[in-house]
Structures are given as C-alpha cells and as structure tokens.
C-alpha cells in the first residue's frame, strides 16, 4: 500500500515563498518518478513539476525559474520549493507517484496524496 502525505501549504502574500513536502510510504520510493500537480475548482488537474527516479526535473512553463522540485530518497520525501508566488498559483496541490521512473502526464501517475491548499493573496 503506497501512501502519500503532503504538508506545507498555507496562506501567503504574493512574492512570498512556501515549501511543500510529501512523505511517501514504501521501500521502493527511489525507483519511481514523483510529481506535484495542482487543481482549481472546476478545472483539470495539471502538472506543476515532476522529477524522475534519477533526479531529472521537469516544470510547466509558468513556474520555471520560480519553483524547484527535489527529492530525498533517504527520507522517502519529495519537495516543492515555491518562490515568488503569484495570485494565479492559488490551488490545491497534490503529490503523486508515477507508475514508472519518469512521468509528465496525468495518466502516468497512479498514487495520490490528499492535497494541500496554497492560497496567495495580494
């Protein structure tokens, strides 16, 4: 049973930073790609960033240069450092584990956390 637990969301002002964490159960964490997605009410869940099992990151264009995804295989944890937050970054953020060692699309991820709310105010 794979379980993912996110933490670190909250209410911040535009320009501030937040770091999301996702702790993953299981002994094979290092073998799988991890991703952070976000979803607004009524909209499709979208990939924010992913990181392969080998540590190669991938970002959607709107967060490049502001967000950094990283992983600590010793701690079974993936992080999303979010800097220079904008109003449009307000969403529920979900951590997800891929079915394989890579992943950039929603269908490639099969295990999900419960989500954490990030709200950016002006």
Give your account of this protein's structure.
There is one protein chain. With 122 residues, the chain is an all-beta fold. 0% of the residues lie in helices and 49% in strands. It has strands at 4-7, 10-13, 18-24, 34-39, 46-51, 57-59, 67-72, 77-82, 91-98, 109-112, 116-121. Strands 2, 4, 5, 6, 9, 10 and 11 form a seven-stranded mixed β-sheet that branches. The chain is globular. The termini are far apart.
Give the helices and strands, then pairings.
Layout: E1 4-7, E2 10-13, E3 18-24, E4 34-39, E5 46-51, E6 57-59, E7 67-72, E8 77-82, E9 91-98, E10 109-112, E11 116-121
Parallel strand pairs: 2-11
Antiparallel strand pairs: 1-3, 3-8, 4-5, 4-9, 5-6, 7-8, 9-10, 9-11
Following the backbone from N to C, one meets helices and strands in this order, namely EEEEEEEEEEE
Helix content range = under 10%
According to DSSP, the number of beta strands is 11
Please give the oligomerization state of what you see. Answer: single chain
**What separation lies between the terminal Cα atoms?**
41 Å
Fraction of residues in β-strands: over 45%
Tell me, briefly, the overall form.
globular
SS-based class = mainly beta
Average pLDDT confidence is 96
Computed Rg: 13 Å
Largest sheet: 7 strands, mixed
The low-confidence parts are: none
Number of helices: 0
